[in-house]
Amino acid sequence: MHPAVSVIFFTVTSGAGLGMIFLLGLGFPVDASAVWVFFVGLVGGGLAVAGLLASTFHLGHPERAWRALSQWRSSWLSREGIAAILTLLLFGIYVLIWMVTGSRIHLLGLVAALGAAVTVFTTSMIYAQLKTVPQWNSRLTPLVYGAFALGSGWLLASALGTHQAPEWWGIALIALAWGAKWLWWARAGRARLSDSGSSPETATGLGFIGKVRLLERPHTGENYLTKEMVHRIGRKHARTLRILALLLGGAVPVLILALVALSGAPSLFNLLAAVSMIIGLLAERWLFFAEAEHAVSLYYGNR
Amino acid sequence: MTSLPASTEKRLGLVIDLDTCVGCHACAVNCKEWNTSAGASPLSDVDAYGADVSGAWLNRIHTFEVTPEDAPAQIVHFPKSCLHCDDAPCVTVCPTGASYKRPEDGIVLVDEDLCIGCGLCAWACPYGAREMDPVENVMKKCTLCVDRIYSETLPEEDRIPACVRTCPSSARHFGDFNDPASTVSQLVAERGGIDLMPEMGTRPVNKYLPPRPKTRPQPAAASTRVSAPVPKADGFLGWLDAALDKLG
């Protein structure tokens, strides 16, 4: 699949922002000065909003994006839009009351946290629902999206909040997220298009005669389908990107957190771990798209 | 609404005969011609006369080579357009309601004024039936020539999809699959019409008729390959023959 930069940026940043909203809603301790609360709320909400705005950049008609809120009965993309807007609205009210009165309305926080979790789940289901991409079509996909949102959200919240010794929790959550991703990668290795039961033989229905091979494409140039779904260029640096994702998304943040915890440095340094993890996740998300094989490639010479 | 109808009154669609298709691309060309000048917006091309040509087409003709285990390979031309699936995954993923399946005749359509061009429907389709228009930035797909088949102004014989009307080898047939007496239903029954990628669970309406079995060349008669027995020699040659036999 073609890795669209706007969608990669969207899933990573809105994941981190929603992870932070989830934790703040659950009551993650934060210094109660109004200015600081505003700033912390702005980071969580801002990341989520920036991600959602970025996602509209890949639309052919961004000005009609509001129409995407109508089909929640059948469409995960529609559900995601609604869940995101409701969550941000509730979180905004939660932060506003917190700023003004200095106290947090726990019930409202819990509802916003639930909304954040639902939003990340709906995002992941946009991909996990697709039978046409066997590597995505798994329950592990929501698990990975959720675990990365929680991990990156925790690193951000721990840097700006006042949780006692948040670094060890951070290390545990990073390990948990990459553990989930390891499971996902292990499955993806076994769930390639060629393992799914689809082949040029089933795609053409000609398997009963013999082995089927594409002789000639319908046209000499590229088309929307080959650019979007038969995209292979992104896989060129797969190995390097995977190492980069593991280093920046896992090893470096763990190292920073351990150093901060052992040296007794202020938790604000955890921000470095968060930034590193988010950069690593951009590489991870690039591979999520670039390495995915779509069934339509069977009509264009793939096996 | 992008929820699918439980069933449709008619199930209009195409039967494509892979035995008679000659791969001339006339169906694709007539499709492009009709659909670029009728309907909501043109079917755009980019750099149509340049080096990097691309554009939206609703029908594309692939060519496959099929090799049986015990016979030479054969060529099959393979026209592919929207299959108007009963369980169309492209419809349910649509966030705006632009994609829909008509309860009256089962045709899957896109309302271009509602389409935001997110591309998710094209991702959900295993057949590559939907293409983003590079100029209009909305999703385009086969309409089964909905503006021809119900037309009251076109001559009677033109009230069929453009691809069917133009096919010079009559490899394309149009009709209602819910009517067991229709040509398409009978062709499917007689020739064993096949579904593409049934494992995807899309239940396509369009059916493909497989190529008829090829006449295979008879293997050469076994007797001609056995050499005639060598006549027995006598005299000196007989002695030599016996001596050489003894040497092994």
Give an overview in words:
- The complex is a heterodimer of chains A (303) and B (248).
- Chain A has 303 residues and is mainly α.
- Chain A has a single domain, classed as Formate dehydrogenase/DMSO reductase fold, CATH 1.20.1630.10.
- Chain A has ten helices and one strand.
- The longest helix of chain A is centred in the N-terminal third of the chain and has 26 residues, at 76-101.
- Chain A is globular, with a radius of gyration of 21 Å.
- Helices cover 21% and strands 18% of the residues of chain B.
- The longest helix of chain B has 13 residues, at 235-247.
- A three-stranded mixed β-sheet of chain B has the order 10-1-11. In chain B, strands 2-3 form a two-stranded antiparallel sheet.
- Chain B has a single domain (12-209), classed as 2-Layer Sandwich (Alpha-Beta Plaits), CATH 3.30.70.20.
- Chain B is elongated, with a radius of gyration of 28 Å.
- At the A-B interface, helix 3, helix 7, strand 1 and helix 8 of A face strand 3, strand 4, strand 5, helix 2 and helix 3 of B.
- Strand 1 (211-216) of chain A pairs antiparallel with strand 4 (59-67) of chain B, so a sheet runs across the interface.
List key phrases describing it.
heterodimer, A: 303 residues, mainly alpha, Formate dehydrogenase/DMSO reductase fold, 65% helix, 2% strand, globular, B: 248 residues, alpha+beta, Alpha-Beta Plaits, three-stranded mixed sheet, two-stranded antiparallel sheet, 7 helices
Most extensive chain interface and residues per partner: A-B, 58 and 70 residues
Q: What is the average of the pLDDT values of chain B?
A: 92
Q: N- to C-terminal separation of chain B? A: 89 Å
Main sheet characteristics of chain B: 3 strands, mixed
Whole-number count of domains of chain A: 1
Low-confidence stretches of chain B: none
Overall morphology of chain B: elongated
pLDDT below 50 for ≥5 consecutive residues: which ranges of chain A? Answer: none
Estimated share of beta-strand residues of chain A: under 5%
Number of helices of chain B: 7
Rg of chain A: 21 Å
Structural class of chain A: mainly alpha
Give the tally of β-strands of chain B: 11
What is the helix fraction of residues of chain A, given as a range? 55-70%
